[in-house]
């Protein structure tokens, strides 16, 4: 947001005169007026109070690295290399750039908006400014690509744990790693891999997109939800949500590295939105009832002739009735 400093001054909800704002920001009153117009074009709700000044009417949820780190278990924040950006092409792409540049610590990137947000299967991830959470983490694993089976499901469990800790009810998971609420998709996870930089060392970029304040979604072709829609009485803070998710991912990763997917099967399965539902896969060649995941994290459909496992990326599951 070009007018972020102005919004920060207005965020106390009080009326500020143009002259006072100009003095604090070291610019002319005309420049303040232009910034007010720009902030309003970007969606800020600012009232002009005749003869007195400007007042921010709606709450803005600004990203703030210190507030994100506040939500992370003490001591852990030192492991992180947190970057909070105003705008970026994709937070996943930025983590890849940071890994390539040799950033020390666990790269964690958040942005207020993405200009080329990436979804699974080459889709665009709509990333409007200030509305939602766009968060990526660079995670290192040892033992080659083979140790990563089930990781994307583990990340789904971590995000669900974080949301439940924040009081979100009825968090569901849709295989392989969509986050669901009863009225639609709340978020998604995009896992991208970097080639082995050293023998057996694998870099995973875990990108998490979560609808927080969004009340309109142009170009989204499926039922969707947001935290504000599902829990309208909560004053959602993207910083707090990010802190909780980062913390939950940092809880899950060492356990997954030590024992693999086994300990995550039950927590995933209990949130499975497809369990017991009629499903089809492989363009309709497989039809049956959802019956959860196997030990490797493949989804299983119980058909009339037996249980058929389906692999991540191979198909998309659809509720047929
Ligand atoms: C999906 O298609 O369901 C996965 C969406 C993942 C979107 C997130 S937003 C943060 C990160 N950066 C990206 O470009 N994509 C992921």
Tell me what you see in this structure.
The chain has about 325 residues and is α+β, with helices and mostly antiparallel strands. Helix content is about 30%, strand content about 30%. It is built from 9 helices and 14 strands. It has helices at about 5-10, 20-25, 30-40, 65-70, 90-100, 150-165, 225-230, 240-260, 260-270; strands at about 45-50, 55, 80-90, 105-115, 135-140, 170-175, 180, 185-200, 200-210, 280, 285-295, 300-305, 305-310, 320. Strands 3-4-5-9-8-7-6 form a 7-stranded mixed β-sheet, sandwiched between helices. A hairpin with a 3-residue loop joins strand 6 and strand 7 (about 180). Helix 2 crosses helix 3 (about 30-40) and helix 6 packs across helix 8 (about 240-260). It is globular. The mean pLDDT is about 90. The structure holds biotin (BTN). Biotin binds near residues 90, 92, 117 and 118.
Brief overview, please?
This protein has 321 residues and is α+β, with helices and mostly antiparallel strands.
Q: What are the key terms here?
A:
binds biotin; 14 strands; 321 residues; alpha+beta; 9 helices; 7-stranded mixed sheet
